[in-house]
Amino acid sequence: xxxxxxxxxxxxxxxxxxxxxxxxxxxxxxxxxxxxxxxxxxxxxxxxxxxxxxxxxxxxxxxxxxxxxxxxxxxxxxxxxxxxxxxxxxxxxxxxxxxxxxxxxxxxxxxxxxxxxxxxxxxxxxxxxxxxxxxxxxxxxxxxxxxxxxxxxxxxxxxxxxxxxxxxxxxxxxxxxxxxxxxxxxxxxxxxxxxxxxxxxxxxxxxxxxxxxxxxxxxxxxxxxxxxxxxxxxxxxxxxxxxxxxxxxxxxxxxxxxxxxxxxxxxxxxxxxxxxxxxxxxxxxxxxxxxxxxxxxxxxxxxxxxxxxxxxxxxxxxxxxxxxxxxxxxxxxxxxxxxxxxxxxxxxxxxxxxxxxxxxxxxxxxxxxxxxxxxxxxxxxxxxxxxxxxxxxxxxxxxxxxxxxxxxxxxxxxxxxxxxxxxxxxxxxxxxxxxxxxxxxxxxxxxxxxxxxxxxxxxxxxxxxxxxxxxxxxxxxxxxxxxxxxxxxxxxxxxxxxxxxxxxxxxxxxxxxxxxxxxxxxxxxxxxxxxxxxxxxxxxxxxxxxxxxxxxxxxxxxxxxxxxxxxxxxxxxxxxxxxxxxxxxxx
Length: 587
Description:
It is a single chain. Helix content is 5%, strand content 39%. It is mainly beta. The protein has a domain at 11-124. It is elongated, with a radius of gyration of 27 Å.
Protein backbone atom coordinates (compact mmCIF):
# COMPACT_ATOMS: atom_id res chain seq x y z
CA UNK A 1 0.00 0.00 0.00
CA UNK A 2 1.30 3.41 -0.91
CA UNK A 3 2.04 5.68 2.06
CA UNK A 4 0.52 9.16 1.97
CA UNK A 5 2.56 10.39 5.01
CA UNK A 6 4.89 13.17 3.89
CA UNK A 7 8.55 12.28 4.32
CA UNK A 8 9.18 15.01 6.93
CA UNK A 9 6.30 13.81 9.13
CA UNK A 10 7.43 10.24 8.72
CA UNK A 11 10.90 11.18 9.85
CA UNK A 12 9.54 12.88 12.98
CA UNK A 13 7.28 9.92 13.74
CA UNK A 14 10.20 7.52 13.36
CA UNK A 15 12.30 9.62 15.72
CA UNK A 16 9.54 9.70 18.32
CA UNK A 17 9.00 5.97 18.08
CA UNK A 18 12.72 5.40 18.43
CA UNK A 19 12.84 7.63 21.50
CA UNK A 20 9.89 5.81 23.07
CA UNK A 21 11.50 2.46 22.32
CA UNK A 22 14.62 3.43 24.21
CA UNK A 23 12.81 4.95 27.24
CA UNK A 24 11.97 2.61 30.07
CA UNK A 25 8.77 2.82 32.13
CA UNK A 26 8.83 1.42 35.65
CA UNK A 27 5.67 0.75 37.66
CA UNK A 28 5.96 0.76 41.43
CA UNK A 29 3.47 -0.81 43.79
CA UNK A 30 2.10 -4.25 44.58
CA UNK A 31 0.06 -6.58 42.43
CA UNK A 32 -0.45 -7.00 38.71
CA UNK A 33 1.64 -4.94 36.29
CA UNK A 34 4.21 -3.75 38.82
CA UNK A 35 7.91 -3.90 37.97
CA UNK A 36 9.17 -2.84 41.42
CA UNK A 37 7.85 -2.98 44.95
CA UNK A 38 9.86 0.00 46.21
CA UNK A 39 10.40 3.46 44.72
CA UNK A 40 14.13 3.40 45.47
CA UNK A 41 14.62 0.15 43.58
CA UNK A 42 12.99 1.68 40.50
CA UNK A 43 15.13 4.81 40.86
CA UNK A 44 18.30 2.71 41.07
CA UNK A 45 17.46 0.98 37.79
CA UNK A 46 16.44 4.22 36.09
CA UNK A 47 19.58 6.21 36.92
CA UNK A 48 21.80 3.48 35.51
CA UNK A 49 20.56 4.00 31.93
CA UNK A 50 21.10 6.89 29.54
CA UNK A 51 17.46 6.73 28.43
CA UNK A 52 14.73 9.13 29.53
CA UNK A 53 12.93 6.96 32.06
CA UNK A 54 9.58 7.37 33.82
CA UNK A 55 8.76 5.88 37.21
CA UNK A 56 5.03 5.56 37.83
CA UNK A 57 4.13 5.35 41.50
CA UNK A 58 0.77 3.94 42.51
CA UNK A 59 -1.32 5.41 45.29
CA UNK A 60 -0.14 2.97 47.90
CA UNK A 61 0.76 4.24 51.38
CA UNK A 62 4.43 5.22 51.00
CA UNK A 63 5.79 5.94 54.46
CA UNK A 64 9.29 6.20 55.88
CA UNK A 65 10.71 7.35 52.56
CA UNK A 66 14.32 8.62 52.29
CA UNK A 67 14.84 8.48 48.54
CA UNK A 68 17.93 9.40 46.50
CA UNK A 69 18.44 10.13 42.80
CA UNK A 70 22.22 10.16 42.40
CA UNK A 71 24.16 10.78 39.19
CA UNK A 72 21.32 9.89 36.82
CA UNK A 73 22.68 9.46 33.31
CA UNK A 74 19.43 10.33 31.54
CA UNK A 75 16.31 12.26 32.42
CA UNK A 76 14.23 10.78 35.23
CA UNK A 77 10.52 11.44 35.81
CA UNK A 78 8.89 10.37 39.06
CA UNK A 79 5.13 10.47 38.64
CA UNK A 80 2.29 9.73 41.01
CA UNK A 81 -1.47 9.63 40.78
CA UNK A 82 -1.89 6.06 39.50
CA UNK A 83 -4.46 3.94 41.39
CA UNK A 84 -2.38 0.81 40.72
CA UNK A 85 0.20 -0.55 38.31
CA UNK A 86 -2.31 -1.52 35.63
CA UNK A 87 -3.45 2.04 34.92
CA UNK A 88 -1.80 3.66 31.92
CA UNK A 89 -2.91 7.19 32.85
CA UNK A 90 -3.03 8.87 36.27
CA UNK A 91 -6.25 10.07 37.87
CA UNK A 92 -6.75 13.78 37.22
CA UNK A 93 -5.85 15.84 40.30
CA UNK A 94 -4.60 12.83 42.28
CA UNK A 95 -1.26 12.98 44.09
CA UNK A 96 0.70 10.10 45.54
CA UNK A 97 1.81 10.74 49.11
CA UNK A 98 5.49 10.15 49.83
CA UNK A 99 5.89 10.49 53.56
CA UNK A 100 9.35 10.88 55.08
CA UNK A 101 10.87 9.18 58.09
CA UNK A 102 11.21 12.44 60.06
CA UNK A 103 14.99 11.94 60.09
CA UNK A 104 16.05 12.46 56.45
CA UNK A 105 14.87 14.44 53.43
CA UNK A 106 12.07 12.72 51.58
CA UNK A 107 14.16 13.03 48.40
CA UNK A 108 17.79 13.86 47.69
CA UNK A 109 18.78 14.69 44.11
CA UNK A 110 22.48 14.91 43.38
CA UNK A 111 24.40 15.48 40.13
CA UNK A 112 21.44 14.58 37.91
CA UNK A 113 20.91 16.76 34.83
CA UNK A 114 17.13 16.42 34.44
CA UNK A 115 14.57 15.34 37.06
CA UNK A 116 10.81 15.86 36.93
CA UNK A 117 8.38 15.27 39.81
CA UNK A 118 4.70 15.06 38.88
CA UNK A 119 1.55 14.61 40.95
CA UNK A 120 3.34 13.92 44.22
CA UNK A 121 2.84 15.02 47.82
CA UNK A 122 6.12 15.05 49.75
CA UNK A 123 5.79 15.56 53.47
CA UNK A 124 7.19 14.54 56.84
CA UNK A 125 10.85 14.88 55.83
CA UNK A 126 13.51 16.26 58.12
CA UNK A 127 17.12 17.27 57.65
CA UNK A 128 19.71 18.21 60.24
CA UNK A 129 21.27 20.26 57.43
CA UNK A 130 19.50 21.53 54.28
CA UNK A 131 16.36 20.43 52.47
CA UNK A 132 13.73 18.84 54.67
CA UNK A 133 11.45 17.85 51.79
CA UNK A 134 13.83 17.92 48.81
CA UNK A 135 17.55 18.55 48.74
CA UNK A 136 18.74 19.27 45.19
CA UNK A 137 22.50 19.65 44.67
CA UNK A 138 24.56 19.93 41.50
CA UNK A 139 27.84 21.30 40.22
CA UNK A 140 26.87 21.11 36.53
CA UNK A 141 23.98 22.46 34.46
CA UNK A 142 20.75 20.80 35.58
CA UNK A 143 16.97 21.21 35.72
CA UNK A 144 14.42 20.13 38.30
CA UNK A 145 10.69 20.42 37.51
CA UNK A 146 7.87 20.12 40.04
CA UNK A 147 4.49 19.86 38.35
CA UNK A 148 1.25 19.55 40.34
CA UNK A 149 3.43 18.58 43.30
CA UNK A 150 3.12 19.58 46.94
CA UNK A 151 6.07 19.98 49.28
CA UNK A 152 4.58 20.44 52.71
CA UNK A 153 5.12 20.02 56.44
CA UNK A 154 8.84 19.28 56.19
CA UNK A 155 11.63 20.53 58.45
CA UNK A 156 15.28 21.45 57.94
CA UNK A 157 17.46 22.66 60.78
CA UNK A 158 19.77 24.81 58.62
CA UNK A 159 18.06 25.84 55.37
CA UNK A 160 15.23 25.02 53.01
CA UNK A 161 12.56 23.46 55.18
CA UNK A 162 10.63 22.48 52.07
CA UNK A 163 13.12 22.66 49.22
CA UNK A 164 16.85 23.40 49.10
CA UNK A 165 18.50 24.15 45.74
CA UNK A 166 22.29 24.35 45.80
CA UNK A 167 24.62 25.11 42.91
CA UNK A 168 27.91 23.82 44.31
CA UNK A 169 29.99 25.28 41.47
CA UNK A 170 30.83 28.94 42.09
CA UNK A 171 31.84 29.30 38.42
CA UNK A 172 28.46 28.08 37.14
CA UNK A 173 26.01 30.90 36.39
CA UNK A 174 22.68 30.86 38.28
CA UNK A 175 20.64 30.35 35.12
CA UNK A 176 22.46 27.06 34.46
CA UNK A 177 20.78 25.45 37.48
CA UNK A 178 17.03 25.79 37.12
CA UNK A 179 14.05 24.75 39.21
CA UNK A 180 10.54 25.16 37.77
CA UNK A 181 7.40 24.87 39.91
CA UNK A 182 4.37 24.52 37.62
CA UNK A 183 0.70 23.69 37.58
CA UNK A 184 -1.04 23.39 40.93
CA UNK A 185 2.12 22.99 42.97
CA UNK A 186 2.71 24.42 46.43
CA UNK A 187 5.41 24.81 49.06
CA UNK A 188 3.33 24.88 52.21
CA UNK A 189 3.80 24.70 55.97
CA UNK A 190 7.53 23.90 56.01
CA UNK A 191 10.06 25.12 58.56
CA UNK A 192 13.75 26.01 58.86
CA UNK A 193 13.85 25.45 62.58
CA UNK A 194 17.45 25.98 63.70
CA UNK A 195 18.50 29.13 65.53
CA UNK A 196 19.93 30.46 62.26
CA UNK A 197 17.46 28.63 60.03
CA UNK A 198 16.88 30.26 56.63
CA UNK A 199 14.40 29.67 53.84
CA UNK A 200 11.41 28.11 55.55
CA UNK A 201 9.81 27.18 52.24
CA UNK A 202 12.58 27.45 49.64
CA UNK A 203 16.33 28.01 50.01
CA UNK A 204 18.22 28.73 46.79
CA UNK A 205 21.95 29.28 46.22
CA UNK A 206 23.38 30.45 42.86
CA UNK A 207 20.46 29.01 40.91
CA UNK A 208 17.20 30.07 39.24
CA UNK A 209 13.66 29.37 40.43
CA UNK A 210 10.56 29.95 38.28
CA UNK A 211 7.15 29.75 39.96
CA UNK A 212 4.24 29.50 37.51
CA UNK A 213 0.72 28.09 37.07
CA UNK A 214 -1.19 28.42 40.34
CA UNK A 215 1.82 27.59 42.49
CA UNK A 216 2.15 29.39 45.81
CA UNK A 217 4.63 29.54 48.71
CA UNK A 218 2.68 29.84 51.92
CA UNK A 219 2.57 29.30 55.69
CA UNK A 220 6.27 28.48 55.93
CA UNK A 221 8.49 29.56 58.83
CA UNK A 222 12.16 30.36 59.38
CA UNK A 223 14.15 31.65 62.31
CA UNK A 224 16.72 33.93 60.62
CA UNK A 225 16.04 34.87 56.98
CA UNK A 226 13.30 34.22 54.44
CA UNK A 227 10.16 32.73 55.93
CA UNK A 228 8.86 31.85 52.47
CA UNK A 229 11.94 32.10 50.23
CA UNK A 230 15.62 32.71 50.92
CA UNK A 231 17.52 33.59 47.72
CA UNK A 232 21.32 33.79 48.02
CA UNK A 233 22.71 34.95 44.66
CA UNK A 234 19.62 33.24 43.26
CA UNK A 235 17.23 34.48 40.57
CA UNK A 236 13.55 33.95 41.40
CA UNK A 237 10.68 34.69 39.03
CA UNK A 238 7.12 34.45 40.36
CA UNK A 239 4.40 34.58 37.71
CA UNK A 240 1.47 32.65 39.12
CA UNK A 241 -2.20 33.02 39.94
CA UNK A 242 -1.54 31.55 43.40
CA UNK A 243 -4.55 31.37 45.68
CA UNK A 244 -6.84 34.25 44.65
CA UNK A 245 -3.64 35.92 43.46
CA UNK A 246 -1.68 35.30 46.68
CA UNK A 247 1.69 33.88 45.66
CA UNK A 248 3.57 34.58 48.90
CA UNK A 249 1.18 34.46 51.83
CA UNK A 250 1.19 33.87 55.58
CA UNK A 251 4.89 33.07 55.75
CA UNK A 252 6.73 34.06 58.92
CA UNK A 253 10.30 34.74 60.05
CA UNK A 254 11.64 35.74 63.44
CA UNK A 255 14.25 38.05 61.94
CA UNK A 256 14.30 39.38 58.34
CA UNK A 257 12.20 38.66 55.25
CA UNK A 258 8.81 37.20 56.10
CA UNK A 259 7.67 36.58 52.53
CA UNK A 260 11.06 36.51 50.83
CA UNK A 261 14.66 37.54 51.44
CA UNK A 262 17.17 38.12 48.62
CA UNK A 263 20.88 38.64 49.23
CA UNK A 264 23.89 39.15 46.95
CA UNK A 265 24.70 40.96 43.73
CA UNK A 266 23.46 38.02 41.60
CA UNK A 267 20.18 37.76 43.49
CA UNK A 268 16.88 38.96 42.07
CA UNK A 269 13.19 38.39 42.72
CA UNK A 270 10.66 39.39 40.05
CA UNK A 271 6.93 39.11 40.78
CA UNK A 272 4.25 39.71 38.16
CA UNK A 273 0.69 38.76 37.22
CA UNK A 274 -0.24 36.24 34.51
CA UNK A 275 -3.99 36.98 34.69
CA UNK A 276 -5.09 40.49 33.72
CA UNK A 277 -8.06 40.22 36.10
CA UNK A 278 -6.08 39.00 39.13
CA UNK A 279 -3.05 40.89 40.45
CA UNK A 280 -0.32 38.90 42.15
CA UNK A 281 -0.39 39.42 45.93
CA UNK A 282 2.20 39.34 48.70
CA UNK A 283 -0.22 38.88 51.57
CA UNK A 284 -0.22 38.49 55.34
CA UNK A 285 3.44 37.66 55.91
CA UNK A 286 5.14 38.41 59.22
CA UNK A 287 8.63 39.19 60.46
CA UNK A 288 10.68 41.47 62.65
CA UNK A 289 12.13 43.32 59.65
CA UNK A 290 11.04 43.11 56.03
CA UNK A 291 7.81 41.43 57.06
CA UNK A 292 6.73 41.31 53.41
CA UNK A 293 10.00 41.49 51.48
CA UNK A 294 13.68 42.14 52.19
CA UNK A 295 16.59 42.81 49.83
CA UNK A 296 20.23 43.07 50.86
CA UNK A 297 23.81 43.32 49.60
CA UNK A 298 23.16 44.12 45.94
CA UNK A 299 19.97 42.12 45.39
CA UNK A 300 17.23 43.44 43.10
CA UNK A 301 13.48 43.08 43.68
CA UNK A 302 10.95 44.11 41.02
CA UNK A 303 7.17 44.02 41.40
CA UNK A 304 4.94 44.60 38.36
CA UNK A 305 1.24 45.31 39.08
CA UNK A 306 1.60 43.47 42.41
CA UNK A 307 -0.39 44.15 45.58
CA UNK A 308 1.54 44.06 48.88
CA UNK A 309 -1.13 43.69 51.54
CA UNK A 310 -1.61 43.25 55.29
CA UNK A 311 1.92 42.22 56.16
CA UNK A 312 2.83 42.72 59.82
CA UNK A 313 6.29 43.58 61.15
CA UNK A 314 8.01 45.17 64.11
CA UNK A 315 10.73 47.22 62.43
CA UNK A 316 9.42 47.43 58.85
CA UNK A 317 7.38 45.73 56.14
CA UNK A 318 9.83 46.44 53.29
CA UNK A 319 13.56 46.36 54.13
CA UNK A 320 16.12 47.43 51.51
CA UNK A 321 19.76 47.48 52.58
CA UNK A 322 23.25 47.85 51.12
CA UNK A 323 26.14 47.15 53.42
CA UNK A 324 29.75 46.07 53.81
CA UNK A 325 33.16 47.27 52.60
CA UNK A 326 33.71 46.74 48.90
CA UNK A 327 30.01 46.28 48.19
CA UNK A 328 29.85 48.02 44.82
CA UNK A 329 26.42 46.84 43.71
CA UNK A 330 23.49 48.85 45.01
CA UNK A 331 20.45 47.06 46.35
CA UNK A 332 17.28 47.93 44.44
CA UNK A 333 13.55 47.62 45.14
CA UNK A 334 11.06 48.58 42.42
CA UNK A 335 7.29 48.53 42.65
CA UNK A 336 5.43 49.81 39.59
CA UNK A 337 2.25 49.72 37.57
CA UNK A 338 2.42 48.17 34.11
CA UNK A 339 4.89 45.67 32.73
CA UNK A 340 7.74 47.75 31.31
CA UNK A 341 10.86 45.66 31.87
CA UNK A 342 8.90 42.70 33.25
CA UNK A 343 9.50 39.03 32.34
CA UNK A 344 7.95 38.04 29.01
CA UNK A 345 5.07 36.10 30.61
CA UNK A 346 3.78 39.17 32.50
CA UNK A 347 0.43 40.67 31.56
CA UNK A 348 -0.74 44.17 32.56
CA UNK A 349 -3.59 44.59 34.98
CA UNK A 350 -6.87 45.20 33.19
CA UNK A 351 -7.95 47.73 35.82
CA UNK A 352 -4.90 49.75 36.95
CA UNK A 353 -6.61 51.07 40.08
CA UNK A 354 -6.99 47.50 41.37
CA UNK A 355 -3.26 46.75 41.08
CA UNK A 356 0.11 48.12 42.18
CA UNK A 357 -1.19 48.74 45.71
CA UNK A 358 0.78 48.85 48.94
CA UNK A 359 -2.04 48.66 51.46
CA UNK A 360 -2.83 47.73 55.05
CA UNK A 361 0.70 46.88 56.16
CA UNK A 362 1.62 47.65 59.76
CA UNK A 363 4.67 47.88 62.03
CA UNK A 364 5.36 48.95 65.60
CA UNK A 365 3.71 52.31 66.27
CA UNK A 366 6.59 53.54 68.47
CA UNK A 367 9.66 52.39 66.53
CA UNK A 368 8.66 50.96 63.14
CA UNK A 369 8.90 52.41 59.64
CA UNK A 370 6.70 50.75 57.03
CA UNK A 371 9.33 51.09 54.27
CA UNK A 372 12.96 51.32 55.42
CA UNK A 373 15.94 51.83 53.08
CA UNK A 374 19.51 51.94 54.38
CA UNK A 375 23.15 51.94 53.29
CA UNK A 376 26.50 52.24 55.04
CA UNK A 377 27.18 55.55 53.32
CA UNK A 378 25.44 57.73 50.77
CA UNK A 379 26.80 57.46 47.23
CA UNK A 380 26.22 55.89 43.85
CA UNK A 381 25.99 52.45 45.45
CA UNK A 382 23.39 53.47 48.02
CA UNK A 383 20.27 51.35 48.31
CA UNK A 384 17.20 52.57 46.43
CA UNK A 385 13.46 51.96 46.74
CA UNK A 386 11.38 53.25 43.83
CA UNK A 387 7.58 53.19 43.77
CA UNK A 388 6.00 54.24 40.47
CA UNK A 389 2.28 54.83 40.20
CA UNK A 390 1.73 52.95 43.46
CA UNK A 391 -1.25 53.50 45.75
CA UNK A 392 0.14 53.57 49.29
CA UNK A 393 -2.84 53.40 51.61
CA UNK A 394 -3.95 52.25 55.06
CA UNK A 395 -0.47 51.47 56.37
CA UNK A 396 0.51 52.17 59.97
CA UNK A 397 3.71 52.75 61.93
CA UNK A 398 5.83 55.43 63.53
CA UNK A 399 6.89 56.50 60.04
CA UNK A 400 5.75 55.51 56.59
CA UNK A 401 9.15 56.05 54.92
CA UNK A 402 12.61 55.92 56.51
CA UNK A 403 15.71 56.52 54.38
CA UNK A 404 19.24 56.62 55.84
CA UNK A 405 22.31 57.07 53.64
CA UNK A 406 20.11 55.72 50.84
CA UNK A 407 17.36 56.79 48.43
CA UNK A 408 13.56 56.61 48.16
CA UNK A 409 11.86 57.76 44.96
CA UNK A 410 8.07 58.16 44.66
CA UNK A 411 6.92 58.83 41.11
CA UNK A 412 3.23 59.15 40.29
CA UNK A 413 2.42 57.68 43.70
CA UNK A 414 -0.78 58.24 45.67
CA UNK A 415 -0.14 58.34 49.43
CA UNK A 416 -3.45 58.48 51.31
CA UNK A 417 -5.13 57.19 54.47
CA UNK A 418 -1.96 56.09 56.27
CA UNK A 419 -1.47 56.44 60.03
CA UNK A 420 1.95 57.51 61.29
CA UNK A 421 3.72 60.02 63.48
CA UNK A 422 5.31 61.62 60.43
CA UNK A 423 5.24 60.61 56.83
CA UNK A 424 8.95 60.45 55.96
CA UNK A 425 12.30 60.69 57.69
CA UNK A 426 15.57 61.16 55.80
CA UNK A 427 18.91 60.99 57.60
CA UNK A 428 21.73 61.72 55.15
CA UNK A 429 19.53 60.17 52.48
CA UNK A 430 17.73 61.34 49.37
CA UNK A 431 13.95 61.56 49.21
CA UNK A 432 12.34 62.39 45.87
CA UNK A 433 8.63 63.04 45.44
CA UNK A 434 7.76 63.49 41.78
CA UNK A 435 4.29 63.97 40.26
CA UNK A 436 2.69 62.41 43.35
CA UNK A 437 -0.22 63.12 45.66
CA UNK A 438 -0.08 63.03 49.47
CA UNK A 439 -3.37 63.68 51.26
CA UNK A 440 -5.73 62.47 53.95
CA UNK A 441 -3.11 60.77 56.13
CA UNK A 442 -3.49 60.68 59.92
CA UNK A 443 -0.29 62.20 61.30
CA UNK A 444 0.64 62.99 64.91
CA UNK A 445 -0.68 66.31 66.13
CA UNK A 446 1.75 69.11 65.36
CA UNK A 447 4.14 66.90 63.41
CA UNK A 448 5.79 67.91 60.17
CA UNK A 449 5.08 65.82 57.11
CA UNK A 450 8.74 65.05 56.45
CA UNK A 451 12.20 65.64 57.83
CA UNK A 452 15.37 65.73 55.79
CA UNK A 453 18.04 67.76 54.03
CA UNK A 454 16.73 70.84 52.26
CA UNK A 455 19.20 70.62 49.40
CA UNK A 456 18.85 68.49 46.27
CA UNK A 457 22.24 68.30 44.54
CA UNK A 458 22.65 64.98 42.76
CA UNK A 459 25.91 64.06 44.46
CA UNK A 460 24.69 64.55 48.01
CA UNK A 461 21.75 63.72 50.28
CA UNK A 462 18.72 65.87 49.77
CA UNK A 463 14.98 66.29 49.35
CA UNK A 464 13.21 67.10 46.11
CA UNK A 465 9.47 67.66 45.66
CA UNK A 466 8.20 68.64 42.25
CA UNK A 467 4.96 68.57 40.25
CA UNK A 468 3.17 67.25 43.33
CA UNK A 469 0.31 67.84 45.75
CA UNK A 470 0.96 67.59 49.50
CA UNK A 471 -2.34 68.39 51.15
CA UNK A 472 -2.20 67.81 54.91
CA UNK A 473 -3.88 70.80 56.63
CA UNK A 474 -2.46 71.41 60.10
CA UNK A 475 1.01 70.11 59.22
CA UNK A 476 4.04 71.88 57.83
CA UNK A 477 5.60 70.44 54.72
CA UNK A 478 9.03 69.85 56.23
CA UNK A 479 11.42 70.24 59.10
CA UNK A 480 14.86 70.53 57.53
CA UNK A 481 18.19 69.09 58.64
CA UNK A 482 20.20 72.10 59.85
CA UNK A 483 23.44 70.67 58.39
CA UNK A 484 22.12 71.25 54.86
CA UNK A 485 21.04 74.59 53.42
CA UNK A 486 17.42 74.88 52.38
CA UNK A 487 17.27 75.36 48.62
CA UNK A 488 13.86 76.59 47.44
CA UNK A 489 14.54 75.33 43.91
CA UNK A 490 14.30 71.77 45.29
CA UNK A 491 10.57 72.36 45.85
CA UNK A 492 8.97 73.37 42.56
CA UNK A 493 5.43 73.26 41.21
CA UNK A 494 3.85 72.16 44.48
CA UNK A 495 0.48 72.75 46.11
CA UNK A 496 0.58 72.36 49.90
CA UNK A 497 -1.31 73.51 52.98
CA UNK A 498 1.77 74.90 54.77
CA UNK A 499 5.28 75.25 53.36
CA UNK A 500 6.81 76.05 56.75
CA UNK A 501 10.29 77.56 56.28
CA UNK A 502 9.79 77.74 52.54
CA UNK A 503 8.21 80.94 51.30
CA UNK A 504 5.19 80.67 49.08
CA UNK A 505 5.84 81.61 45.47
CA UNK A 506 4.15 81.28 42.08
CA UNK A 507 5.56 77.71 42.02
CA UNK A 508 4.56 76.94 45.61
CA UNK A 509 0.89 77.60 46.12
CA UNK A 510 -1.17 77.33 49.30
CA UNK A 511 -4.63 76.38 48.04
CA UNK A 512 -7.12 73.56 48.32
CA UNK A 513 -6.29 71.23 45.40
CA UNK A 514 -9.97 70.29 45.04
CA UNK A 515 -10.05 66.52 44.64
CA UNK A 516 -13.01 64.85 42.95
CA UNK A 517 -14.21 62.83 45.98
CA UNK A 518 -11.58 62.11 48.64
CA UNK A 519 -14.20 60.56 50.91
CA UNK A 520 -14.64 57.84 48.31
CA UNK A 521 -10.93 57.56 47.68
CA UNK A 522 -10.93 59.54 44.43
CA UNK A 523 -7.99 61.96 44.53
CA UNK A 524 -8.12 63.09 40.91
CA UNK A 525 -8.12 66.86 40.49
CA UNK A 526 -11.64 68.14 39.99
CA UNK A 527 -12.65 70.58 37.25
CA UNK A 528 -11.40 74.03 38.22
CA UNK A 529 -8.58 72.71 40.43
CA UNK A 530 -5.41 74.82 40.47
CA UNK A 531 -3.49 71.58 39.99
CA UNK A 532 -4.63 71.36 36.36
CA UNK A 533 -2.11 72.36 33.68
CA UNK A 534 0.25 73.71 36.33
CA UNK A 535 3.71 72.27 35.52
CA UNK A 536 6.10 71.98 32.60
CA UNK A 537 5.65 68.83 30.56
CA UNK A 538 7.51 65.80 31.87
CA UNK A 539 6.23 62.86 29.86
CA UNK A 540 8.40 60.40 31.77
CA UNK A 541 6.44 60.99 35.01
CA UNK A 542 4.27 58.06 36.07
CA UNK A 543 0.56 58.26 36.83
CA UNK A 544 -1.46 56.22 39.27
CA UNK A 545 -3.90 54.97 36.62
CA UNK A 546 -1.34 54.67 33.78
CA UNK A 547 -2.99 57.51 31.87
CA UNK A 548 -0.18 59.03 29.81
CA UNK A 549 1.37 62.38 30.56
CA UNK A 550 0.86 65.08 29.23
CA UNK A 551 -2.76 65.93 28.31
CA UNK A 552 -3.21 69.67 27.81
CA UNK A 553 -6.76 70.68 28.74
CA UNK A 554 -8.39 73.25 26.51
CA UNK A 555 -10.34 74.85 29.37
CA UNK A 556 -7.44 75.13 31.87
CA UNK A 557 -4.84 77.90 31.55
CA UNK A 558 -1.22 76.73 31.61
CA UNK A 559 0.53 78.16 34.65
CA UNK A 560 4.04 76.84 33.93
CA UNK A 561 3.09 74.21 31.41
CA UNK A 562 0.42 71.67 30.38
CA UNK A 563 1.02 68.97 33.00
CA UNK A 564 -1.25 68.44 36.00
CA UNK A 565 0.18 68.22 39.50
CA UNK A 566 -0.06 65.01 41.47
CA UNK A 567 -0.57 61.33 40.71
CA UNK A 568 -3.28 61.84 38.07
CA UNK A 569 -3.51 63.58 34.74
CA UNK A 570 -7.09 64.75 34.33
CA UNK A 571 -8.86 63.72 31.17
CA UNK A 572 -12.45 64.19 30.09
CA UNK A 573 -12.84 61.05 27.93
CA UNK A 574 -13.62 58.40 30.58
CA UNK A 575 -13.58 55.55 28.03
CA UNK A 576 -10.01 56.52 27.23
CA UNK A 577 -9.23 56.80 30.93
CA UNK A 578 -10.44 53.28 31.56
CA UNK A 579 -7.85 51.95 29.18
CA UNK A 580 -9.95 50.92 26.17
CA UNK A 581 -7.96 53.20 23.87
CA UNK A 582 -4.55 52.81 25.47
CA UNK A 583 -3.21 49.44 24.37
CA UNK A 584 0.34 50.73 24.24
CA UNK A 585 0.41 52.50 27.61
CA UNK A 586 2.55 49.73 29.15
CA UNK A 587 5.02 49.37 26.32
